[in-house]
Design goal:
Layout: H1 5-11, E1 18-22, H2 28-40, E2 50-54, H3 57-71, E3 79-82, H4 83-95, H5 105-119, H6 129-142, H7 157-173, H8 179-192, H9 194-203, E4 206-209, H10 217-227, E5 233-237, H11 251-255, H12 257-260, E6 265-269, H13 277-287, E7 309-313, H14 316-332, E8 340-344, H15 350-359, E9 364-366, H16 377-389, H17 395-401, H18 422-428, H19 433-450, H20 454-463, H21 467-478, H22 482-496, H23 502-522, E10 530-534, E11 543-548, H24 564-578, E12 581-590, E13 592-593, E14 596-597, H25 602-606
């Protein structure tokens, strides 16, 4: 394929620092592959002195395969690897680490669970809490933030600090490295041992970094050390596609690259070979609303194409059923729907969509595993309440809800027996009239619950028993927005609507859970049907037809994004979603959800919704 002038300039660059700003669909992987071939061929550079580094094993493998195919070789001394892989190799030589020293995910979450039980109280019961903590530990390490200056966004700071310190000391005692340690230890090694650093600087004289916008501070600090003294550092990325802030990625690292390397040349790959003119124009209109970015003039040689389609729906159910219907019609016409992706902001939102596709018998593949709403502790609470109301007085059910909301009931008040007895509870608190009143109120509430179908029962627990207020207080403790927890209740209510009994609802839950695990097993195989993914999950991929759903305030941009920098990241994420589409892009939003009004996203106006 004939290369355009910007691509040719990047490919022919041999020494010194260079920054390549690569817009979506601009052929950046080809540029990296062909530049590596040019350096090690016509450039006369020793292949063994070239390091090509990226973020995922799949990307490193693809790049190596494309390089071998392009050069017609079977093997190469060029190093293609991930940050973790390369830095682990360096540590292996220095400290004699083996695979035994790498902390598996299983062991990591085992350690975190122990620490949560010790320090976190009821936080330990939350399914996703250990993942939130793991992310925060990673951010603290990856950006070398001192613990006293880090404020946790998922729990009280004191609890986070205790868990963090406990985690570090257990890993050290077991001589185990997690992913972040591979990078942290490598940095420390280079700082403490200039002789070892010098040996690696001689080995890797030319460094290419792909997806540079995803780099964190610690990775960048090591790359800068490795590139000295010659600074043959070639970075490729797009600040407009920096969407991994939660992993520690900072677009400002890329924005400040030319300050760190004043002699760096800059090339902009501004030709998009993927999207039609109309899709690209709409995406550019959106991203130009960001203030903190490099200015780029992107264009495409592709056809004009059909206009971007803007579609409003009364509610998510209508949205999902309409799209499932459109896909079913295409299948009936014999079309292959594997060229289509449906994108969402979070994978929780896929629940209703998955249900609609199952109903219409439209095959689909999910990029990420869908979390099961019915495994959430709030769902366990609802079911425990309904079971107690139905007379299943087990100790397990009662422990689940006795202080949700807080009734000040102590575990000591429960007899050791399997069955719960309200009369024994009252006997324990016989000297405290106010406690006996609370227990009587709970009994009365359970009697009311007994005759209610699940939808009404959830409503009564929420409003009549004070569970909604309890979630507000709990959210404050967890430093999250109450809406996040209340939305779980909304989703549970929605799922229980129309169910006549707890048994019927539990059967539905069981059936849904079974289908979900069947879907998870299929995931590793080839794509079947339409692809469902979050926008994060499809970065780097492309499809003929793309739907982006629920483009409403609170979803896109996400409700957690409050600061201007967070809104800019949400806009970048939406831009990534839009630029996955080659030929057709459909942007959808809803007017109502859970019987509440929803506001259309500000991004729709930026994309040209009212200019149609």
């Amino acid at each position: 394929m004939e290369r355009n002038p910007s691509q040719k300039r990047a490919i022919a660059h041999l020494s010194g620092p260079m920054m390549v700003l690569a817009g979506p669909g601009s052929g950046k992987t080809s540029v990296i592959v062909e530049r590596t071939a040019y350096m090690t061929g016509e450039g006369g550079i020793l292949p063994a002195s070239v390091l090509v580094v990226t973020f995922s094993r799949a990307a490193a493998r693809e790049m190596k395969e494309r390089f071998l195919k392009f050069t017609g070789q079977e093997r190469t001394p060029v190093t293609f690897g991930t940050f973790h892989g390369v830095f682990y190799g360096i540590l292996k030589q220095a400290y004699g680490f083996t695979a035994e020293n790498i902390l598996s995910d299983e062991e990591k979450y085992g350690i975190l669970k122990e620490l949560l039980l010790e320090h976190g109280g009821e936080l330990a019961e939350e399914g996703d809490f250990s993942e939130e903590i793991a992310k925060e530990i990673s951010v603290v390490k990856g950006n070398r933030i001192s613990l006293e200056h880090y404020y946790s966004s998922c729990c009280p700071d004191e609890i986070f600090r205790r868990i963090y310190q406990g985690y570090r000391s257990i890993c050290t005692a077991r001589r185990k490295l997690d992913f972040d340690d591979m990078i942290l230890y490598c940095y420390d090694l280079f700082v403490k041992r200039p002789d070892i650093l010098a040996a690696w600087q001689r080995k890797f004289r030319y460094i290419l970094v792909d997806e540079f916008q995803d780099i964190n501070q610690l990775q960048y600090d090591i790359v800068k050390l490795l590139a000295k003294p010659e600074d043959n550092l070639f970075i490729v990325g797009d600040d407009d596609q920096s969407i991994y802030h939660f992993r520690g990625a900072r677009p400002e690292i890329m924005l400040n690259f030319t300050k760190d390397y004043p002699k760096a040349e800059t090339v902009v790959l501004n030709m998009n070979y993927r999207c039609t003119k109309r899709i690209l124009a709409s995406a550019i209109k959106v991203i130009e609303n960001n203030q903190t970015r490099f200015q780029k003039d992107l264009s495409t040689p592709n056809e004009e194409g059909t206009p971007v389609k803007f579609q409003e729906f009364p509610n998510p159910r209508e949205e999902y059923m309409t799209i499932a219907g459109e896909l079913k019609d295409r299948m009936d016409r014999g079309e292959d729907i594997r060229d289509t992706a449906i994108l969402l902001r979070t994978n929780q939102e896929a629940e209703g969509l998955v249900g609609a596709l199952m109903e219409r018998q439209v095959p689909f593949t999910m990029k990420e595993t869908l979390p099961n709403l019915f495994r959430h502790w709030i769902c366990r609470n609802m079911i425990a309440y309904m079971k107690l109301a139905a007379g299943e007085n087990s100790r397990k059910n009662f422990l689940e809800i006795m202080n949700r909301p807080n009734r000040y009931i102590s575990r000591d008040a429960l007899a050791v027996s399997y069955e719960l007895s309200f009369s024994q509870l009252k006997e324990f608190y016989k000297d405290k009239d106010w406690m006996c009143d609370r227990i009587t109120t709970l009994e009365t509430h359970l009697r009311i619950l007994k005759g209610l179908p699940p939808f009404a029962a959830i409503n009564f627990i929420r409003k009549g028993m004070g569970y909604g207020e309890y979630l507000h207080e709990y959210a404050q403790y967890r430093k999250i927005k109450p809406e996040e927890l209340l939305e779980i209740l909304d989703r549970l209510s929605e799922s229980a609507r129309g169910m006549n009994s707890l048994k019927e609802w539990e059967d539905h839950i069981e059936d849904y859970t079974r289908k979900l695990s069947e879907q998870a097993k299929k995931q590793s195989r080839e794509q079947e049907g339409v692809l469902i993914s979050t926008m994060h999950g499809v970065k780097g991929l492309e499809y003929d037809k793309v739907y982006i759903l629920n483009i409403n305030e609170g979803s896109i941009p996400y409700k957690k994004a409050v600061l201007e920098s967070a809104i800019e990241e949400e806009r970048r994420l939406f831009y990534v979603g839009m630029t996955r589409a080659r030929k057709q892009l459909t942007l959808c939003w809803v007017k109502q959800q859970y019987e509440k009004e929803r506001e259309a996203s500000r991004f729709l106006k930026e994309a040209g919704r009212w200019k149609q």
